[in-house]
Amino acid sequence: MKKNAYTLILFFLSISFSFCQEHTTLLKKLEAFKNSDQYNTVEHEILNASKNILFQPFSVKDKDKMDAIKAVDRWLVYTGDYTFPVMGKLYNAIKNDEYLVSLYKTSMVNYILDQKLNYNRIITCNINPPKGKTYLEQNDVRELHYEAAVILIKFLKENKELDQGKDFKNIVNAYDEKNLREVLFES
After folding, report:
1. Comparing C-alpha atoms, which of 54, 72, 73, 89 is closest to residue 159?
2. Contacts of 22 (CB under 8 A, 6+ apart)
3. I need a labelling partner for 185 at 20 to 30 A (CA). Which of 17, 91, 152, 156 fits?
4. Of the candidates 138, 140, 160, which has an alpha carbon nearest to the alpha carbon of residue 148?
5. For the chain, what is the domain count?
6. What's the rounded Cα separation, in Å, for the pair 157 and 141?
7. CA 164/CA 6 separation, integer angstroms
8. What angle do CA 99, 90, 183 make, to 5 degrees?
9. What does 32-93 look like in DSSP terms, one character per residue?
10. Start-to-end C-alpha separation, the chain
11. Which domain holds residue 11?
12. How many Cα atoms sit within 13 Å of 147 on the Cβ side?
């Protein structure tokens, strides 16, 4: 009986340890990549890392969580398939806080990969918009920025981190009043 209990304890500890190192291992894998095509092979892992960042309790002392953030950031910089400027009213409200900007980019990555991998939808954010339109006037760009804003606001509400300044408070109020889309994209 003692042997079975001891075996179970070791089993759960090994699972816990490997789970706690999941994103550290992913980051090391990304750092070893030699070209941008290799980054396309880890989309599921990057989606899982973004979910871990945005939908699990957060602590800056959690090395694996910090490595998940670094992995998502690295993937976004080096992947050849996804290019989207981080801009707009929400970005302007948080641009002086590197942590919030990183969470906003993570929210964008989460939304784009979730749509691709779970709904077979490709969100295209053409960096060179059609003639007569600005970047933010494209439908997919608006969808991405809106949905990422919703994800970010929910994350910050969940973690009670909404005190981010007047401009950000106005965006949160717009979310609460169900007119976030209008506030994000009005001229």
Report:
1. 54
2. 48, 52, 64
3. 156
4. 140
5. 1
6. 24
7. 48
8. 160
9. H--SHHHHGGGHHHHHHHHHHHHHS---TT-HHHHHHHHHHHHHHHH-SS------SHHHHH
10. 70
11. 2-185
12. 16
Residues 6+ apart with CB under 8 A from 47: 109, 110, 113, 114, 117
Q: Which residues contact 119 (CB under 8 A, 6 or more apart)?
A: none
What angle, 0 to 180 degrees and rounded to 10, lies between the N-to-C axes of helices 98-119 and 139-158? 120
Half-sphere exposure of 171 (CA within 13 A, CB side): 28
Distance, CA of 133 to CA of 27 (rounded, Å): 37
Question: How many residues does the structure list for the chain?
Answer: 187
pTM over 0.90: no
pLDDT by residue, tens only, the chain of 187 residues:
555 544 444 343 334 333 457 889 999 999 999 998 999 899 999 999 999 999 887 666 788 888 999 999 999 999 878 877 788 899 999 999 888 899 999 999 999 999 999 999 998 888 888 888 888 888 999 999 999 999 999 998 887 776 677 888 899 999 999 999 999 998 6
Return the structure tokens found at 128: 């060179």
